[in-house]
């Protein structure tokens, strides 16, 4: 028997849900929200709900009391339980307990990214679309830039949304400007077992 829960009701809420992610490891639902900028300072947060619909965690500030998020547009989870958020200003990563681990603001001082779609892969890489350079950045699980995995092309267009299939190890990339979804493979099953990656096919 299917049961439906109303996790968030916005009738009188100042918080606007922007993105959701269901965790296959815990069964929890992660929701990224922000406050209406017409009434409040642009501030975001991530909330965690149990399968019962009970709110179990709110991630909003770092250990110095400063806000972590502006507008959390996309959200996912890494293999180690880290919560990975594509915010309007940076990629923000917190541990499962909510402690801020790092924020990725680009690997070039004069080129701050415009983070878009985000996902993680079998090797715990963080993949994020950058709307400023029309590329897909690959980071390691600690936020170190590794490479531009994909760049704008006639075939792909401007990459904007990402999804990684853990069963086939294929990366699905949605384009902003040409209504295409392209599928790539850069990891094979053996690589996932031995922590090695291959060139893009």
Describe this structure in words.
With 201 residues, the protein is mostly beta strands. 3% of the residues lie in helices and 43% in strands. Strands 1-2-3-4 form a four-stranded antiparallel sheet, with no helix packed on it. Strands 5-6-7-8 form a four-stranded antiparallel sheet, with no helix packed on it. It has a four-stranded antiparallel sheet with strand order 9-10-11-12, with no helix packed on it. The model has no long low-confidence stretch (mean pLDDT 87).
> In what order do the strands lie side by side in the largest sheet?
1-2-3-4
Number of helices: 1
Query: How many angstroms does the end-to-end distance come to?
Result: 43 Å
Contiguous runs where pLDDT drops below 50 for at least 5 residues: none
Q: What's the main sheet like?
A: 4 strands, antiparallel
Mean pLDDT: 87
Structural class: mainly beta
Q: Using only CA atoms, what is the Rg? A: 17 Å
Strand content: 35-45%
The overall strand count is 15
* String of helices and strands: EEEEEEEEEEEEEEEH
Name the shape in a single word.
Answer: globular
Give the fraction of residues assigned to helices. Answer: under 10%
